[in-house]
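User: Modeling request: complex.
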Amino acid sequence: DIVMTQSPDSLAVSLGERATINCKSSQSLLYKSKNKNCLAWYQQKPGQPPKLLIYWASTRESGVPDRFSGSGSGSDFTLTISSLQAEDVAVYYCHQYYDTSRTFGQGTKVEIK
Amino acid sequence: QVHLVQSGAEVKMPGASVKVSCKTSGYTFTNYAVHWVRLAPGQRLEWLGWVNTGNGDTKYSQKFQDRVTITRDTSASTVYMELSSLGSEDTAMYFCTRDLVAGILDYWGQGTLVTVSS
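Assistant: Request completed. Predicted assembly structure:
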């Protein structure tokens, strides 16, 4: 299975400041024929199911605020929240759908400093 | 609008089986695969498997291959996940989720808490 490793495990950011979460995969997630990376980001708040934020590494899901952005390629990816809002407190997961056996990162908990 | 509504919480004895349902609405059922993902306390999200709702083909995680069965009822637009030989480590919130395309999971059920305890 492809191993997904996020860093950091948790971070505390002041309101309005930038939050950056990294995700590294144990092998490349680049789907060469489509030139797309099979990497998604999800946000999960307590008592709720995960919510899709980003897919193909950098495509924002409809309705997701533009302060959320995804970048990276191959095996290194980043989720950036450009200006943290109170409602962004959550656990964030990266997810690879390159391999038929799907895997997730361990999650990064984002809190307000 | 798209909805995935799961069955209610379950409490099971060790060694028993559990079957969770996921009723979908708001879209053409057979056009989108459905996956099952769980979140156990202190663990990461874990993928169990998926079903092609059109032809019923399934793919399971190797970890759960021998214990999980995912089926669908096209007449009821419902997907089922059955997990057998339950142990305490199977205590978790189980989610069904729709596959937009290629494995991108866009809509999720509300979750079903399965507790395994003697």
